[in-house]
Amino acid sequence: MNPFLRLTFALMLACTALRAQMPPPKVPEVTYVQIEGRELRALGFNILSAFPYKIFDAGSGATAEEIKAAMTRDQVPAWIHAYDRQRVALSGYMMPLTFENGLSRKFIMMRDLNTCCYGAVPNMNDYVIVTMKDRGISPIQDVPVLLVGTFRIEQKYEGDYLVSLFVMEGDKFLGQQK
C-alpha cells in the first residue's frame, strides 16, 4: 500500500480511537435562521460532529464480515436523523473538489480549517459532500460560509472503503457567514 495512504489510515484509526473514549454526546439544541423570509433549521458541525462515529472499512483494518455488518449498521443518532432530507442552512468551511470555468459545483463543507489538507484527518461526521443543483459557485475558502440545500444521511462505500456519510444538494450559496 502507498505509504501516504497507510499514514492516512493510521491517523484515521487514531482519531477514531480518541473519539471512542469521549463521554456520550450531549444532544445539541435545534436552532433556526431566517433566510429570505423563511425559517430554516441551522445545521453546523457543532451538531454533525457531536457524536462518535466508528469507521469499519478496509483502511481501518476491519474484516470482510465487519465491513458487511457496518454497511447495514446505523451509527447516526436520532437527533441527526431529524435533519435527513430536510432543507437546512449549513455552515462550515468550503474546500472545492471540482472546477469548471472558475466555478465549483462539487465541494466539501468541513468542520474547521484543521480538517483534511491542513491538519487532522477528518472523521466521517466532520464533513458534508455538497453538489450544487444548478451551476457552480465561486469558492470562498478559509472563512466560514453558509449554504442552503437538502441534507441527506447517506453512508456510502466504494468497494470496501467508506467514502461518505453526509451529502447535500445545494440550491443557494449565501457566501461568507456573518
Polypeptide structure, described:
The protein has 4 helices and 7 strands, in the order αββαααβββββ. The protein is α+β, with helices and mostly antiparallel strands and 178 residues long. The chain has one domain (3-176): Beta Barrel (OB fold (Dihydrolipoamide Acetyltransferase, E2P)), CATH 2.40.50.870. The chain has a 5-stranded mixed β-barrel. The chain is globular and about 50 Å long. The relative contact order is 0.18.
The top level CATH class name: Mainly Beta
Q: Classify the fold: give the CATH topology.
A: OB fold (Dihydrolipoamide Acetyltransferase, E2P)
**Beginning-to-end CA distance, first to last residue:** 44 Å
Morphology call: globular
Number of strands: 7
Oligomeric state of the chains in view:
single chain
Largest sheet: spatial strand order: 3-4-5-7-6
